[in-house]
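User: I've been going back and forth on whether these two constructs are worth ordering. Before I decide, could you fold them both?

Assistant: Sure. I'll take them in the order you sent them. The first construct and its structure tokens:
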Amino acid sequence: MTFTAAIRSGLAVVCASVSFAASAPLMASPSDAWAWKHRVVVMFAPHKRDASLIAQRTALAGTDAHIADRHMAVIEIVNSEAKTVMGARLDVSASGMKKFLRKNDDRFEVFLLGKDTGVKLRSTTPVTGDDLFSLIDTMPMRQREMTAGSGAKGS
């Protein structure tokens, strides 16, 4: 093989590699599932019988109308399984959410994420539905929604 042929052969391999890398899809952020569409409550627990998780579930029981009105999704992450339990159905992974929220342990914790994907609340104890909804209702985006009529306060 001549030097020129070797260079061409090597160049073809490099070009093929660059072409493949450029066409590979980028890994989506977990927030792509809800950004600008939903507010998300994420509940982490070490196991499904965790007392704080049960208390958080109880605190949100019967609030379906409030959750729908505020464009929310409620996700439980227990061990390595993520499951939407109330509101909008979102397809997120437990590992992706843990990484996104920088959650490094298995202890109970609840997060409220805004439509802008920012963390609005982080608590290691259960939060009442009224506290979540009151906090959401003070947010500028929610205020605009209420003014525009896409969600009535208190409903």
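The second construct, handled the same way:
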Amino acid sequence: MTIIEVALLLERGITLYILLAVIAGIIAYSLFNFFYQKRVIKTLSEEEFREGYRKAQLIDVREPNEFDQGHVLGARNIPLSQLRTRMKEIRTDQPVYLYCQSGLRSGRAGQMLYRKGYRNLNHLQGGFKKWTGKVKAKK
């Protein structure tokens, strides 16, 4: 084996280690977010969500065009993309019920709110696409 062949093998090995380190980092970050979200926001079944959302602040974090196509009756639209600037519209002394289309954005919104001092945070398991209750749509 020549020196060039050894160098090529070493280069491939280093590239493989870098690739594995990046993949491990992504997996670690995803696991951290998953467990952090479970700790700061309670995931509710549709039945549990229905029991409490009328006594809480119901926030739809989807974009306005999604909201206009249909939303849970009584919900306010504060898109995740605007949440940082509109957070003052949400009271800290009342429960917050969040939902989005699938549950991903509402989880992120819950994490953002938690970092700003909100504590009674809940979101709909499966999001709006799993909702079977009353829906209001713009005509």
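Notes on the second construct follow. The first strand starts at residue 42 and ends at 44. The mean pLDDT is 90.
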